[in-house]
Each structure stands twice: as structure tokens, then as C-alpha cells.
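Hello K.,

You asked for the raw outputs rather than the summary table, so here they are, unedited. I folded two proteins back to back in the same session to keep the settings identical. This is the first:
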Amino acid sequence: MPLILAPAGSMQALKSAIDAGADEIYLGGSAFNARINAANFDNNALIQAGKLCRNANVGLHITLNTLIYDKEFSDALAYVDFLSEKVKPNALIVQDLGLAKEIREKFPHLALHASTQMRIHSFADAEFLKNLGFTRAVLARELPKEDIKAFVDTGLETEIFVHGAICISESGGCLMSSVIGNRSGNRGECAQPCRLPCKGKNKFPLSVKDMCLADHIKEISDIGVTSIKIEGRMKSPEYVGAVTSVYRRLVDENRNATKKEIELLESIFSRSGFTDGYFVSKITKEMFGIRTEEDKRKTEQLKFTPPKAEKRANREEQAVPPQMIIPQRDEEKTLSPAKQKGLVLRFEGKLPSDEFLKKHIESAARIDLPLRYCYQKRFTPYKDKISAILPRSVFLNELEEVKKQLKSAFDFGIRHATISAIYQADLCKNFYIHGDYAFNVVNRKTLEFLENFSFSSVMLSPETDGRFPKGSKCALEYIGYGRTPLMYTRTCVIRNIGECFGKERCFGILTDRTGAKFPIISAPNHTNTIYNSLPAYRLDKKAELKKCGVGLMTLLFTDEPEARMEEIIALSQTKEKPKFEYTRR
């Protein structure tokens, strides 16, 4: 039977979770956690929380699930030292790859759980996580049950969300709050722009209903999931206690929720009801909803006192974390930074004309094209410089098609691939691999870690200023021009705001309440990427960035006419600023 993992944003919520029968509890301190606006726990409260959980035989997981900047590493490791000595948690939940490696080296006795912010979408991630010393993976909320089962079968402990708020964007892949509001979701400061109204027929096209898998507990148990997770560190102690008690009863009785129990959960909190769309692979308009006045009224009228659960049995001793195994960089499979300098022409929307490519092929260091288009016959003259951009995530039912496309690309003569996850490196073992912006590289430690996986280049996160120390074995890449990708979604936003014709290259426009227009580009299976309303421009800083080691400046084109592309390329050879409106983010 799965363990029940409950949230605690305050000491009272922690006590409510224990009383309601949680097997495990996750909470954060005053820094380095993805719910920085919760009440959270100062150091004295963390020590008290550790004692409470041990006395109740409840596991305690501490969140360090944000990206860490270089200047913060000493403080972060001092915090881990305090947790290890004084709090004695059962596990730390970590997002940042560089921080994870440092913790494994300096605190080998501490168990690490891979945060959902690490964008864990494939069972193929499991081997990489095991080798890094993780004992559990918190899977992305958007995974269907077939992919969850495949991950469980790898033998790594598996944790899935079963209840609470879900984002329309993939976890760890949303930059909207950061770019348009300077409040980073990867830093625990998300302002939830997805819950705000937009213009058009559907006023809330990004607001997804809360997840509820209470009607799938038997399935989840049969699959063999280790732990079921309730979202809600920003919620009240009453919410935590009530929701935990319902799932406690369902797990103990090994059954799915009754209609009455679902109605009770809706009364506690919902946004126009619940959705199980991701789990059952029904990605429809019915997944969307907002918190209505009727929802609020139900909560206000609710009178429910969670029954106090029986004291839990003694927990089993946790296994010693495995030894960390990191591969050695294979220089024969990489290109040196000296061979990778100049402009990367990247096309994520409209494909370039033959005339445009013919004109600029000599000056381009690389040309990035989506995998499904890169082996068109007309691209034959440019195949030596083409890098195939893999999809941001590859689900189980998509894997064979991606493998087929990669074979077509290789047979065509393409030898470069741009990837968004470590497991994709194995899919592309015959290619030179380039790390995409989705790796969220914001510190030197993460960059050093990725060097071991034989990346030829790594793109720095748009959440950095691009100023990294020189000396990387990988070429450093940075977006010099382009609309920053703000969200990657498994739901079709284009369909939700109007008409979607099911085409692979379907375009749409999201207009927010201020009138700003955000282009949306779709891919197969109705996945979408939402781009910023304004392009970022940093090409006038090219010389300064070059001194910091950035050798590749990416021009990310989406919906620009070729006249604008020509203008950008011409500007890249000067220090002039463009006359059109732009942003630095």
C-alpha cells in the first residue's frame, strides 16, 4: 500500500497532518524552498518538527527544491549541515543538479529525493537518478498512469501527486512569473499569472482545476507507487487535516473514494471541481476551471472534524543511499568550445526559406530545427550544421516515434542533437549533444556536473545574466535574441482559447488582461509552447558575454518575418540596440 505524504506550511499544519494519519510530511525552511510565501519553519521550529515526527513515527522530508545561485552555495550547504545535525530528516527534496551533487559528496548519509521541479517525465530518468544517489523520484504531475507504471518498474522509489493544485506548465519548466513579473517559480516566488484573466471568449484559459485521484487509489496501489503526495503547503491546517484523513481512510481500506467523499473533498477546496485528466490521458477543456463563489460558499459552510488516526507503526529503517556514479566525459564524442563560436540560428516556429539559409549558412555556427522537420530533403545542403531539437518531454507512447525520427535524422546525415533531459542523451548517443535551456543551468556546479555527460555545449538559463566564469569544457550558449519560452504545456492552450485544427504547426495568440500578446506554437499530441510577448535582446552585450565564456549566441526565431530575421542578424554584427520594443529577460 502506498504511503501518504502530507504538506505542512506551518507548525499547526504539521500537527494536523500527524493527527490525520500521514505516513510522511514534507515542509520547508525559511529559504531554498519552492513555497517561500508559506509560513514555513525557522531553524528552531525545524528542530521541533523533527522531534514531533520522530515521536509519531512519521517520515520528515525537507524541501530544498529551488535553483541555487553560485553566491548561495555556502549558505545552502551550511543549511544542509544544520539539518543533518539538528533536524535529522528522512530525506531532502532537491531540484538543483549542482546542489544535489554537492550534498551527495559532503553528506553521503542523507537520502535525496528528486523534486518534480527536475522535470521527471520518463522511466529512463531512473538510471541517471540512481547513479546520482537519489533514493526516490517525485514524478511530473502531467504523467499518465502507463508512464508512472514504467517508472515504478525501474525499482526506484516513486512518488506521485494525487491531490491539490497543478500548473498548466510542466513543473520546473515555467518562466512566465519570472520573465514578466520578476518572481521566479524556480525560486519559490511564483505570482501565479496562470490564474489571472485574459481577453477573449475564455477568460481563464490557463487555470487548471485541482487534481484529485481519490477515485484511482486501487489502481495506484496496484501499480506499486511508493508514496502519494498531497499538494498544499500554502493551505490551512484544516485543509491539510481534512484531505489527509480522507486519503488515510481510502488507503487503509484499499478502495476508491465514494461520490460522497469526492463531494467532501470538493467542499474542502476545489476550482469548479477536480480533474484526473493527466492520469487517465484525457487532456480536454474539462481540465480547466477557476475558484468560483459557489466553491467558496461550500468551503465556508463546511463542518468537518477529521477523525484522529491511530498511531502509526514504527517506520522501517531507511536504506543507505547508494554510492554516486558519474560518467567520465568522453572527449571523442564532444566538440571543443574553440570549434563552436558565433551565431546559432534556431527556428521553433516558421521554418526558414532556402534563400535565407543559403545566405547565412557560412556565418552560422549551428542551425537548430525541430526533430520532426530537420530531415526534409531541402535541408540537405545544410545537414552538417543542423542540430535536431528533441521534444521537451517524451512520454512512453511517443518514444518509438521519436526513435524513428532520430534514425531518419541520422540516416539523413545529421550529427547534432539539442536535448532537454539527461535520458535523451542515451537516445542521441550517436550525435554530438547540446544542452537546452530546460536544464535550468544557473550555477557553475550544475554546469560542471553536465560536463561529465559529454555535452558539446550547454545553454545557460534565461534566469541568469549569462556571466559565468571561463573554463568550461562545454561551449556556453545563451539566448542573444528571441521570445523567451515561458511555458511548455501538455494541454492544448490553443484549443482552450479558440480553434485548434490539430495541425502539427498550429499557431495561436494568448492576450492577457493588459493587452500583451503571447504567441503559442503547438507540436504533435497538442503540446504547446507559450512565448513571451516581447523578444529578449542581449546581442549588444555580446563582447561582454564573450569575456565571460559565452561563445554561442542563439537567435531564437518563432513568428518573425524573414525581413526581421535579416535585421537581427545585421544587428548582431554591431553594438547598436534595436529600434523595436524588447526586454532584457
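The second followed immediately with the same parameters:
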Amino acid sequence: MAHPFIEAIRERVLLADGATGTVLRERGWRGPSPLAVLEDPGRVRTLHEEYLRVGADLILTDTFEATRIQLARHGYGERVRDVNFQAARIARDAREIIGTPAFIGGSVSPFGRDLAVGSVTPQAAGEAVREQVGALVEGGVDVIVLETYPSLEEVRIALEAVRAVTDLPVIAALDFVAALTTPAGESPREVAELLAAEGGADVVGVNCGVGPRATLDILQELAAAGIEAPLCVKPNAGLPRITGGQPLYPSSPEYFANFALRAKDLSAAVVGGCCGATPEHIAAMREALDGASAGGANGASDGGGVPLAVTDTRGGGLDTGLPPADEPTEGADGEPVGEPDARLRDKLAAGAYVVSVEIDPPRGINPRKAVEGARLLREAGADAINIGDSPMARVRMSALALAVEIQREAGIETIIHQTTRDRNLMALQADLLGAHALGVRNVIALTGDPPPEASQSSAVWDVDAIGFIRILKRLNEGVDVAGNSLGRPTDFLVACAANPTAGDIPVELGRVRAKLDAGADLLMTQPVYDLATLEEFFERLGTVEAPVLLGILPLMSSRHTEFIHNELEGVIIPDAIRERMRAAGEAGADAGLEIATEQIEEARALDWVSGVYVMPSFGRYEVAAALVRQIRAR
């Protein structure tokens, strides 16, 4: 006889819960998530009850990173059984209180980076998983859920360990990146075929890493593999942004409701949410799925509601091969060779209308596409090229290396983005001294997006963007953070970012004011699609002595528009523009260019706007070049 969970997924789509860790942090818990089951069990039980109350059929225990190895980092290595047994009991208590026949899933996390670099061996990982699963089974879970695994190699280790302890059903959900592969480079089809083989998982799926749109793309590939195993999807609520020290996730409950319907159409057996998904998101999904089952108006999944968007907004292909670079970069006097004649600083000081365009570094080792794009943009009339620092917290070529190549090969000044996420104080200063020696004079100081689970990286954040600006200004005074002389001062133009549509405007206003007070020379905004919102933000900000470049992100299609609005935290697109992009149909790129041109013309009337900062999507530098030509023609 089949397990009740297996019987249930054969009969209907099961709705899983949303996030645990991110919601607990949002509600005030500050310790490692699994320790809350010992130190604040009521908070955990309340969250489980909320998910069950809004209709979740499956809730996961608060045991992510709760093996002996992971708990030992917090001094709880000897309490594996206590943590996992208690977590299962709390979930069962919540189910009993609400009186629902929901299933309890025992959450088991990967070791990720530790396993990849060898600090945890496969044998030790397997033993740790067996111990954890034994405690979860003892605590009464119904299903084992392997979630956010970065590779098939690691999920196989975990599966073998689980099978050695219990015959309960197993859900194996891997993490995927925006390129629609696992961090280890495995395709959805490879994942599906191997996990569905004999001895594999009972349910195969994807969670965390990406938002709803990319998850649907992965689900489609999983479904196309033609496997027998049921499919599970639990995406993040879009791509987060750090505001006030906390990650904010952009995807609305309505957007998740539409996602649930699309996932159902693609034959998903289990649908839920991961980081950033709250009880409100799960409630909206429940209503949508119930409406679909009843054949009601809310069940329409033919494109109504909130359209889901394209997977990635920022382009950049995978290239290979690096052209030679044997020319000197610095003369005998220590000044850079080949530095562009016209300085961005001088143009801004003279009141010129400045145009900068963003180029993302390649994911591989060949910068040719980026260099050619920079050359095209220089010829179109751009003044500078912005270069992202592993945007979206995904690994790319260093911004500094690409900046040097662009300045030398394309003859246009660059502004490098540098985040405090990836570097401690020593590395920040070392990189800046190297950048100055190589002729890079413009830096935008950023805190950086939080690294996703798939990156297997840890954030540093010795300082935030405000502290980073102070460091840059100290270097410009000729000393490092410790007060040691540099011999001579640096000459950096220090830029900072502002987001006029941030989730918490008072916090953002305070941070932007602090950046300006720390000495920022240039203010660059995130994309803003509503002039009134922009004006209100700067009115509340008060006097700004630094020049301002307005962020412009040309829209490419209706799907692109919806992705930005629903899955990028801090970017809001007015309904009128969204409707205009929907009506444009196949001519979406032309409509987006027209909207961008109108935005720029309207903003020219604002005397504090000194130019624009254009962010082309999908590496479409020809679109940015066309926009630059239109700007220069006026």
C-alpha cells in the first residue's frame, strides 16, 4: 500500500508552506533558525499554525542546517536529537491545534561549500544526515525533504543516507541559478532523469535560488524529461535587496497565486514558496488553486492575472578565451597609460549632460562582447561605462579587470561597482589601490545583494556602503583606514546609489543622506518609471549638492516588464506603463525605448538631474546605443 503522502499527490496538487528562516528573522528572531525550536518554540509553532490555517497541505520543520556539523558552529553539536525531535514535535503540535490532515516534512539541508572544498567529507556528510533524519523520524515527520541542494553529487549522498534510516517518501529539491542549471552546471533534464531512476527520490523538484518565472522555466524542462516522479516547486519571492540590514523580497501574493496556477498547468504535484514567501503568499496560492479546482473565475490560468515574466533581466553570455594584453598600463611617473582624455569628474563639474551605460562582466573569461559593446556606446556618445560587480550576486569576471580592458581597448572612461559584500576591509583597500594604479578613477560604493544559497559564498560586510564611502574619501586624503600614509592621495570620484521606490522610504532617505554626508561626489538612482515619485523622493531628501544621474532601464516586452515589477525588489512600474507594454505586443522593445525617451525628456526639466545612467537588459547594447543617440540628438 502506498504511503498516504504518495496517494495524496496522485490525487491533487499539494500546497506546501512558505519560508521559515526569513519570516522568523522578519519577526524578530536573531539567532540561527533551527535554534529557535529550543529557545523560542512558541514563535516557530505560531508560524506553522499560520501556514496551516491558510491552507498549507505540507509544512517543513525548522531544521534547515540542523546536522551535528552545522549545529556545532553555534555550540549545539551535541543537541542534534533535541533540535530535530523538538522541531518535528512543534510542527505536529501545530497540526493538532489547527486540526488539519497536513503532512509534516523533515527539512534536511546540504553542506554546499563545505563539501565542495573538502572541509566536510562525503562520509562525514552522510553520517550527519543519517543522524539528523533518525531524529526527525523519531519526532514523527511524514516526509523527508532534501532542499536547496547544489549538485546531484551531494543529493545522492543525502539520498543514500536517508534510505539507510527510513522508507518514508523523499522530496529532493535542487537549487538552480538564473542560467537554469544547478550551481554544479547540471541541467533540469539531467536532474530529473537521475533522481527519478531506481533508488532516487519519490518527488523531484527545485527550490530557492530563483524566483517564480525562472522556476516555471525549470519546471517546464523537468516535465519535458518525461519522468514518472512527481514534481515539486518552491521558488523564492523574487530577488531580494538589503534595506536597513534586512532582505526585502518583491514578489506579491497575487504574483505567487498566478505562479501556482501556471505550475499546476505544468503538472507540478507540490507547489509552495521559499525565501521571502509568507503566509499571505500561501493564502493567495490556496485561493487560486481552490478556484481552479472549482472551475471558478480565480482558476483561470490562460494568461489572466499577473503575467509571469522572462527569466533574467541583465544579459551577458558565456564566452571563452582571452585576447592578449601586453601593453603597459602605467608610465614612469606612475600615471596610467591610455587613460581617456576627458574626465567624467570634469564633465560633471562643467554642468555637461552626462550619459553612462551599464555593462555586465561576462560569466566566462572572454570580455570581447563587453568591449565591443563599450566601443559601440562610446561612438554613440556615451561618456562612461558602468561595470557591475557580480550583479545579482552571481559569479562574473571582476569589474576591475573588465574596466581596465574597456578603457584600453574602447577608449571610454569606466565607473566600477564595488560591493562590501565580498571583501573585508583589507581586500577593499587593496583592490582600490590597484584600481587607481591601473587608471580606474570612478567607483560606486555599494553594500551588495545578499548571496543566494546557490553561490555557496558567505557575505562579509565589514562595512556597508556608507562606511565604504568614508574609506574611499580617506584614500583620497592619502591615508588608509588605519591612518597609514599612502605616499600620495588617490583621486577617486565616489558615487553612491539611491532607490526612490525602496520598500522602506524613510530608511532609504536616511541612508542616502548619510552617504552624501560621508562625502559621495555623485548620486545614481535605481530605475524610476514615475516622475512624481522621483520628485517626491528628492523633495524629502532635501538639498543635494552632488550631481544626480537618473537610472533608466528600457523595457523589452510585457513579460520583461512584469518580471521587473514583481521579482526585482525596489523597482515599481506604474500600471499605465505595464498596460502600455502589454498593448505593444511584439513591438515591446520599440515601446520600451519610446517610454525611456519620454522619461529622459521629462526629467530634463529637473535642474538637479545631471544626466542618465542607462541599464540595458539581456546585453542589448544596440538598444542602449540607440537611446544614447536620441539623447545626443536633442
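DSSP finds 24 helices and 18 strands in the chain.

Happy to rerun anything if the numbers look odd on your end.

Regards,
P.
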